Amino acid sequence: MTHALWNLVCLDCGTVYPGLAVRFRCDCGGTLDVVHAFERHPARVDFATMDQRLGSFGAGDRSGVWRFREWVLPIDPDRIFTKPEGNTNLYDSRPLAEFTGLERLSLKHEGENPTGSFKDRGMTVAISVARVLGMTSVACASTGNTSASMAAYASECGMKSFVFIPEGKIAYGKLSQALAYGARTIQIRGSFDAAMHLVEEVCRERSIYLVNSINPFRIEGQKSIAFDLLQNLRWQIPDWIVLPGGNLGNSSAIYKGLAELRALGHISKLPRIGVVQAEGANPLYRAFASSTPLEPVCEPHTIATAIRIGSPVSWKKCLRGIRATGGVVEQVSDQEIMDAKARVDGAGIGAEPASCAAVAGIRKLVERGVIGRSERVCAILTGHVLKDPDAVVGYHRSELEGIVPRFANPPVSCEATLAAVLGAMDGTA
Ligand code: F0G
């Protein structure tokens, strides 16, 4: 049986559950980890196997998640549902290296996934497992990207999907996707944290499969960011991987993937993990700075709506990774996020505000001497620039409250005459 190849284990009390079960928490309330029995796998795979698969036309091999299937989740290949995801570009940007004070900066653009964010990597695994389990409905609470991803995957494989979002607090690109892909979209008059709490209850009440990152299979898929990144780097280990933190699933996943590669003997050291939070939604930053358990932030606020989260579900998993790698947590203001975003966008790469928090955080960490200027740093850009058009247009039109648009590129209007157009082009109109 396939599921003998892994179990679900409680992070808090160590209780072990069978690998294939509709279960999202331990009976004690703790979150669950997939613990693999890699030694039971029939075939050993290594970096050369993964490189060979790059030249294959097999559906699994073409996905930047399932190419690493033995390390992700060894389910029956016929049950895999993939769009396919991953294989995102790693950009080296001179202007952004200069902006952050580094000699070199690489940016892994997860916004290049099928629905425009890294969530697709976790979703392909969660939806595939949902199919194995015979589930026909899925649900999530979301700040937007998870819902966009879930809606697309669920529709394509004929499942019903329910989205719970904080009303008025998600970016338009993401709301558009949930509606367009046909999810039943429920706007809660409350925060993401309230929606998260409710969706757990709803899924317990009805037979609906929860695909938030509390679902341990989401984390298994998101580990592939680390595998795909290392493959981009020809299996060299960077000094740092820096990414934004919200519900804290992604940072947990990247650490877990790397720790497993080390346990398997494929790599000998781990990069340090830097998690960046927005100042107004910084519960992990506070917990890390004070070495105390996480205290939720009651009314989180930030322009980076993707990470407007006060009570992150995966904080323990995330801190485990930060501690094990000698990592850090940084916080950045909305002004710093939007300054960084203007530079990321202006460099022709582009990303949504939350993603750019990572770049703003790197700049601060270099300034503080935590990251050395010559260290090899990879930032994870988590979402596409078009996810949040209001933030872009509002910034360049100087319409964002409390933000000084230091790098504004406002549109200019002119009469429909040649003289006026030429004047507008020269900036003299
Ligand atoms: N960046 C983007 C673009 C996101 O959408 C999210 C999370 C994060 C960063 C933070 O990742 O939660 O794993 O720490 N978005 C979730 C959602 C919460 O519902 O789309 P995390």
Tell me the series of helices and strands, N- to C-terminal.
Answer: EEEHHHEHEHEHEHEHEHHEHEHHEHHEHH
Q: Measured on Cα atoms, how large is the radius of gyration?
A: 21 Å
Could you estimate the helical fraction of the residues in percent?
25-40%
Q: Report the principal-axis shape.
A: globular
What compounds sit in this structure? ligand F0G
Tell me the total number of β-strands. Answer: 13
Mean pLDDT: 96
Low-confidence stretches: none
Pairing-aware structural class of the strands and helices? alpha/beta
Proportion of strand residues: 5-15%
Q: Order of strands side by side in the largest beta sheet? A: 4-5-13-10-11-12
If helices are DSSP runs of H or I spanning 4 or more residues, what is the number of helices? Answer: 17
How many strands, which pairing sense, and closed or not: the largest β-sheet? Answer: 6 strands, mixed
The rounded distance between the terminal residues' Cα atoms is 72 Å
